Hints:
Blueprint: H1 2-7, E1 11-18, E2 21-27, H2 34-53, H3 75-83, H4 85-91
Amino acid sequence: MAAKAKALVGMTYAIGGIMDDTHLAVSVPPKIAIARFVGEAKGNSSHFINQIVKPNFEFYWQDEYSMLSFGGKNLPALARYIQNQKSHHAGGNLIAAMEKI
C-alpha cells in the first residue's frame, strides 16, 4: 500500500492492522479523488497478495472504507495508534473515531 501511495504521489506515515482491519495514515494529493486513491491502494494490495504472496488465495477488500481528516499536530499520536493496532484490539482500548464500530 505504501508503494502505491508513493506512485500516486502520496505520503505514507503509518500502516497497521489486524486480520480484518487495516489503517493507513497518508497524505493524498489534492489532484486525486480520495475514492480513486483508496480504490487503487486496495486493488494494488489485493493483486500483490493474490498473485505474489499467496496465489489463488482469493483475498479481497470489503467495498466500504472510512476516511478521517487530521492535522499535522495530531500525526504522531495517530501514527502510534495505527502502529499499535494489534494491542489496541487485543486490549479492547479502541478509539471509537478511529474504528468502524
